[in-house]
Amino acid sequence: ATAVGWTALDAQNRLSQWAKANAVAAKLLAKSPPPGPYYTQSLHYQMAENYGRLGQHVNAIASWRAALAVP
User: For residue 31, how far is the Cα from the chain centroid?
Assistant: First the structure.
């Protein structure tokens, strides 16, 4: 299921479906967290970029902070 989630996230990002990509990313974080800190940080980074593209700056800042908080 995790591989399908990452594939869906990548596909939505390539199609410029930022909101759908963030919905997939949120499900990935909730149901099957990434195996290592690099992937967790990457996921938060992608979410922050997508929120920024959507104009949701408060959410983007929260995602940036979450990405920076990963050890």
Answer: 13
Task: Give the CA count within 13 Å in the CB-facing half-sphere of 17.
Answer: 11
**The pLDDT of residue 35:** 86
Closest by alpha carbon to 35, among 2, 68, 1, 69? 2
Q: Torsion-angle region of residue 64: left (phi > 0), alpha (psi -120 to 50) or beta?
A: alpha
Whether pLDDT at 66 is above 90: yes
pLDDT tens for residues 15-46?
A: 999 999 999 999 999 998 888 899 999 999 99
Residues in contact with 21: Cβ distance below 8 Å, sequence separation at least 6, in sequence order: 9, 12, 13, 46, 50
